[in-house]
């Protein structure tokens, strides 16, 4: 292991480096060093001047918990089945959180203090994990890995509005992406967000000062990054640059500069994302990266070849159901919407706590928006393609442009290849995942010799492309023995708005399907075909499910009914008070929103 740290310049063998992660929450590269002149970030700008700045670093998910699941495991959370927000689903026993391997190698591992790993915790991976955890408690000479989380930029920090006159950044001058209207509330929230970025920068200064005071700055490789983009609407939670592109600045002290990919003060355009971060730390520490990890180191002795693509994924966000995948190369972002009938602007309780969101929604309902600003509230295309170099805000969809047909096909094929390669478990509807997870990790289940995960993914792909020629095959698959295939076949008939008598008859036969996920997909399809009573009966029944996630799915279907959901009001109210089953927080969020509209 010592040969890894041999410095030719110093002619000495070095001990493994300390590694410090400074992780701010919910912020895109709204930093001076990344070219944002409106940002007030002197600490990070100075750090970047003596560090390596990555221009193509990305979260794997545009929200915290599934991103942190990927960070701590070195595995794609959609492969593990840990993508749905705040899900409790287990992973295989042999998969250890990566700090465990550092502890085995003699490192002192500390976390201050957010975890949010979206799976069963492994607290033994930390020597200390709390809001008081510090590397100062280690043994003399012991290397450390420390994570310091910064909360001040979190989405919640714009929920309580600072008075207009007390904002440090002028709301009337704040830069704003073209998809946002300049409402007073939107201007205010953007300005307050810039204020929070400034506060975050000050906190980074304090962390670096503490490191210097400890005498360990010369022995420590420092990572600064954000856990995803955000926080105003269409950033956090959404599959655009604003939600996925993150700042990443890595500082190498003099004695470890031989581990840097380029000179201090340089910028590097290598594509990296969160699945690579844990393996990279292990590589820098001289610890062998486990073979099962899907991430590849981008630094250290085990550094892999640069990636041509990085991948990202969106599943259930809080109480709203969705499924999106994305591929990014150095120029283009491809987005594949597997539920294109659902708009980006599905109501989310937590997102709507920011005043900017209701103001945007109100402007849309009042007809005050242009086409770009309105798009968030409308059904989506199956595919989106953006030339990020020319269009960093992702507003000019090139998917239908013949000039980009080859690029579209390349990235479409790469996405389909990847979701099959990793056996993307979140193509299973989540009530199925919950049921499977009571017996075994879904990661293992979808790799079982008798389970046709490729066929499930192919059906989802067929169902969501809005291609009328796919309808006969989708109808054929309504009888498939695999419930996930049936789920996607039903969803496909709905996306294609097939209201033929034959399809209605087939769906009515499926109202008693053994799978709750299929029954609820049938309910939504029937309602959109005008068969309202049977659709309502299914939803009312599923609101009594002992599984909270099934009730969430039922509420999502009823959301589509509008005032036609009124006969389900009593069942909705009962589902809030029923203590049977797992009480996840998403259930009341989804149900109360419907009740508010019905009252």
Automatic annotation (TrEMBL):
Superkingdom of origin: Bacteria
Domain named Sulfatase N-terminal: residues: 17-287
Keywords from the named record: Calcium, Hydrolase, Metal-binding
Keyword Transport included in the entry's annotation: no
Presence of the UniProt keyword NADP in the record: no
Family the UniProt entry places it in: Belongs to the sulfatase family.
Protein name: Sulfatase-like hydrolase/transferase
Organism: Imperialibacter roseus
Source taxonomy: Bacteria, Pseudomonadati, Bacteroidota, Cytophagia, Cytophagales
